[in-house]
Each structure stands twice: as structure tokens, then as C-alpha cells.
Design goal:
The protein is α/β, with parallel strands linked by helices. About 30% of the residues lie in helices and about 15% in strands. The protein has helices spanning about 70-80, 105-115, 125-130, 140-155, and strands spanning about 15-20, 30-35, 40, 50, 55-60, 65, 85. The strands form three sheets. Strands 2-6-7 form a three-stranded parallel β-sheet, with helices on one face. Strand 4 and strand 5 (about 55-60) form a beta hairpin. The longest helix has 15 residues, at about 105-115. It is globular.
Length: about 160
Amino acid sequence: SSCTALTSVTIPDSVTAIGRNAFFGCPALKTMTVPESVTFIGENALGMRYDIRNGSVEPVADFLLLGKTGSAADEYASQNGIEFLDLSVTEIGDVNKDGFIDSNDATSVLMEYSNLSTGGSFTFTAGERLLADVNSDNAIDSADASDILIIYADRST
């Protein structure tokens, strides 16, 4: 709790519960994977922070919770307004999460790349950025769009 330098956490499958405020106020922790073994997540345990300006608890900006659909992580994310993604359901490259990796995804990546290249800020959510970075180089660019088109062409033949 309140560790501003914490950037990653690995929760082993042996963990069944994450207690209240466990990772509260850890703004550098942007992505967390919660295994299916976790059946309980306490209040404000993940991806939440205190906003001193308005005196309220709110989600950490761009926090992404990864896990299985229907799990405690999915329920926690839904209850707290946190973005959730199930990578067993949505493939890397399927930026619009429609179940297909196609030219629409490549176009979205190119539009985001164009925006970023001209000094704009991200329009993609944390989950969309993860899905768009097909080559895992921590950048969203034309190489990712090209990789998406290669996957699309390969699956279309």
C-alpha cells in the first residue's frame, strides 16, 4: 500500500485472496494480472488511489486489470470502474475487441500512431495500447499495424 515506486507484481496461483488496500495508492503499478485462484479482492485493493484535491478514492489513471472473464478480478474491475481485459478471449492485435484481427485494427493503430507522431496524446485506453503493441516493443507504430495486416492476410488465406 502507498508504494509509489512499485511497478510490477506477480501473484502466484497459490493466492486465494487479496486484502483490503493491499496495493492502494501505487500509481506506478499500471497493469496487474490476477489469477483465477483469487476468489476475493478486498475494498480498494487494486488500482485505486486517494485524490487529495476532491477527497475521494478513484481508479489510478490508465490502470489495467488482467484476468479471466467472470472471475473475482472481473467483478472487482466492474465494481470500481477499472478497465479489465481477458487475454484468453481477446487476442493481441484485436484492438477493437470484435473477435477478429483485421484491417480495421491496423487502421486504428495507424490513426493512433499518426496522432502520437504529431504531438498528440494517447486516445487508446491501457487495454487498447496492450492489444495494439503486437511486437511488444512498448510503442504503437506502423510496425504494429504491419504485423496486424500480416496476421490478417495469413488467416484469410
